[in-house]
User: What shape does this take?
Amino acid sequence: MENTIELLQKIGNKILNQANIHDLVALNFEAQGFSKLGDKYKSHALEERDFSQKLFNRILDLGGKICYQNQVSFGVPASPLEWLRHDLEVSKEGLKELLPLVGAASNDLVTYDLLKDYYKDEDDDLQWTQQQLDLIDTVGYQNWLTQQL
Assistant: This one.
């Protein structure tokens, strides 16, 4: 159970960090006039906060203590294209790291279901980002940007 709590603590803090980054990305895009992108990342930040809260609640259910872990400084990429490319790589790495952790939690079905749901949500986000990059290749960056206003 101690390993499960440590695992949840690590993942919960990582998700919370991503939520904070996505809030900043949303602000950045809104300031540039890309309201659809701003809304997308605001919504994504809320989903991530919800997932982190579920993981932290699970820690409490298991009798553990939750803690906030300091995060590393991060400069938000300025352009939407730069951000999408960065976010795609982060998603790929995150899913690669998360998959064995989901399996490791299989002896605790509640934790397993939480992590599995988060994995699915992150995979959906990766697919969306890849779709946007494919659209940019198809319609051109300027045309895609126009759709994000």
